[in-house]
């Protein structure tokens, strides 16, 4: 090709590829690359110093390195060819030019000509940086409505990718046409976790823009809060959170968390008598279900002999238990343990004791925990009892209201729990754990709970009953104190979406 004669290059529409060095050093002042071109070779237009502008259509799928290097008077480039994340525009173009275009994912060095604003259910597409939209196709069956600075497409699906075709004008290029690919936004999910050594409280929540969430929760319990226990210390876990929204949209998110290290330090045993000892270990174990305990054996027993063991409870940073029916004047050794639900055991250090040590009198220890699962006529109460020198004859809970008599409900075990029934709705109750020996009755802390009003089986029952008491219920019919934006609620017998 005689480059002295080539001033304006128009490549025929039946050409699909521009080879390596095809126009190396030519003096053309302009070039038209048709939409039929799918590849441009290495050094394809190298050294074409008179070219001032170039349009790379999005039909071009491949370009060799330094294709336009040496085009030192190149000022403006409209770039629509797709690139990958590792690509740099400088691999193909000289540094002297300004590059405009539409590329997904966005590449540094390319100034966008399309501005997209996305919500959960809409896309708004507008022109920017000198580009002019002449026409835009339907997107997801929705016709764009011109609004302010762009075309608004409504009633789209949540978190879905859509394609459309745009025709427009940019600088000297009057017939620019390209395909866009944009997505509506997913629903943002976040987690607020309280992580311990052997347990975790997981809280899931979400935020919406214009979607309506109808159900959410962890897959294990279908609630926004999940309590898990019996975990292995210093280990990683995950739980799946889900939500349903408009048009049967389903989304999940993974909540990953790590449990903390376990510490168990065995303390010196304390003699209650020559056959009874109090065992104790300091620990950060937060287990509340008797997964901790002690192993013990005679000090001179061979390692092959299995230890005896018993479960005990942790209270206020200490694991304690009472060991009875020991042989007098014998050396024993013991150590604390924690057994995760997986079956894996964790141990503290061995400590020895002699049953001939001087005896000390111990009162039983008794403590009360906060009530759980409080409903309209029931509540679960829990307590802690550690035996002392005297035998325990009875243990359990005492409870009463401001207008009622003191009632008792017996229970058993080091960690006591029982359900109080036949309570009065919407009433303050006081309760405390107790333990009785042949000498006295000792009490734990006095605590309080308040029973709920009418229980509900779902939001439809609230609608049927036409409740008019300003109480807010969620989609499952549960009373709530706070609301999530975009979620379905009921108040005064009417459904509404929280704003």
Strand residue content? over 45%
* DSSP strand tally: 42
The shape, in one word, is elongated
Major beta sheet summary? 9 strands, antiparallel
- Quaternary structure: single chain
**Spatial extent as radius of gyration:** 37 Å
* Unreliable parts: 455-468
Question: What's the mean pLDDT score?
Answer: 89
Helix/strand layout:
Elements: E1 8-10, E2 17-18, E3 30-32, E4 39-40, E5 53-56, E6 62-63, E7 76-79, E8 98-101, E9 111-112, E10 114-118, E11 123-127, E12 132-136, E13 145-147, E14 150-153, E15 161-170, E16 173-183, E17 188-195, E18 200-207, E19 215-218, E20 225-228, E21 236-245, E22 249-258, E23 264-266, E24 270-273, E25 276-283, E26 292-298, E27 308-315, E28 318-323, E29 331-339, E30 345-347, E31 351-354, E32 365-372, E33 379-386, E34 394-401, E35 407-410, E36 415-420, E37 428-436, E38 441-443, E39 447-450, H1 459-465, E40 472-474, E41 488-491, E42 494-497
Parallel strand pairs: 1-3, 2-4, 4-6, 5-7, 7-8, 8-9
Antiparallel strand pairs: 10-11, 11-14, 12-15, 13-14, 15-16, 17-18, 18-20, 19-21, 21-22, 23-25, 24-25, 25-28, 26-27, 26-29, 27-28, 29-30, 29-31, 32-33, 33-36, 34-35, 34-37, 37-38, 37-39, 40-41, 41-42
Structure in words:
The strands form eleven sheets. Strands 23, 24, 25, 26, 27, 28, 29, 30 and 31 form a nine-stranded antiparallel β-sheet that branches. The chain is built from one helix and 42 strands.
């Amino acid at each position: 090709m005689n480059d002295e004669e080539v001033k304006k290059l128009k490549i025929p529409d039946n050409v699909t590829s521009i080879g390596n060095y095809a126009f190396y050093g030519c003096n053309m002042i302009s070039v038209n690359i048709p939409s039929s071109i799918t590849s441009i070779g290495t050094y394809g237009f190298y050294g074409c110093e008179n070219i001032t502008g170039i349009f790379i259509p999005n039909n071009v799928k491949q370009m060799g390195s330094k294709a336009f290097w040496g085009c030192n008077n190149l000022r403006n480039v409209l770039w629509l060819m797709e690139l990958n994340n590792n690509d740099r525009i400088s691999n193909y173009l000289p540094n002297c030019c300004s590059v405009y275009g539409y590329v997904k994912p966005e590449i540094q060095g390319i100034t966008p000509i399309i501005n997209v604003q996305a919500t959960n259910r809409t896309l708004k597409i507008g022109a920017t940086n000198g580009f002019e939209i002449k026409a835009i196709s339907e997107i997801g069956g929705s016709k764009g409505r011109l609004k302010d600075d762009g075309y608004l497409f409504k009633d789209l699906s949540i978190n879905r990718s859509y394609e459309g075709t745009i025709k427009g004008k940019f600088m000297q290029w009057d017939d620019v046409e390209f395909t866009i690919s944009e997505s509506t936004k997913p629903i943002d999910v976040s987690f607020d976790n309280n992580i311990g050594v052997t347990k975790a409280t997981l809280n899931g929540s979400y935020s919406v823009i214009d979607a309506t969430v109808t159900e959410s929760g962890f897959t294990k319990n279908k609630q926004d809060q999940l309590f898990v226990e019996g975990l292995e210390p210093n280990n990683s876990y995950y739980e799946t959170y889900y939500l349903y929204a408009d048009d049967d949209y389903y989304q999940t998110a993974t909540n990953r968390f790590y449990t903390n290290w376990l510490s168990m330090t065995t303390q010196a045993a304390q003699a209650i008598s020559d056959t009874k000892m109090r065992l104790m270990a300091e620990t950060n174990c937060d287990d509340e279900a008797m997964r901790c305990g002690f192993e013990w054996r005679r000090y001179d027993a061979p390692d092959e002999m299995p230890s005896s063991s018993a479960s005990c409870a942790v209270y206020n940073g200490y694991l304690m238990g009472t060991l009875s029916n020991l042989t007098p004047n014998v050396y024993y050794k013991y150590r604390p343990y924690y057994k995760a639900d997986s079956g894996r055991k964790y141990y503290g250090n061995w400590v020895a004791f002699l049953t001939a040590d001087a005896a000390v009198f111990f009162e039983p220890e008794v403590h009360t925990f906060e009530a759980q699962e409080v409903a309209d006529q029931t509540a679960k109460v829990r307590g802690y009892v550690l035996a002392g020198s005297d035998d325990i004859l009875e243990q359990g809970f005492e409870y009463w209201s401001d207008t009622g008599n003191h009632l008792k409900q017996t229970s058993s075990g080091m960690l006591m729990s029982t359900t109080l029934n036949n309570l009065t709705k919407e009433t303050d109750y006081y309760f405390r754990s107790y333990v009785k020996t042949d000498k006295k009755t000792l009490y734990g802390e006095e605590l309080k709970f308040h029973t709920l009003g009418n229980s509900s089986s779902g939001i439809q029952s609230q609608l049927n009953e036409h409740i008019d008491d300003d109480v807010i219920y969620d989609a499952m019919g549960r009373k709530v104190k706070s609301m999530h934006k975009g979620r379905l609620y009921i108040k005064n017998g009417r459904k509404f979406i929280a704003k």
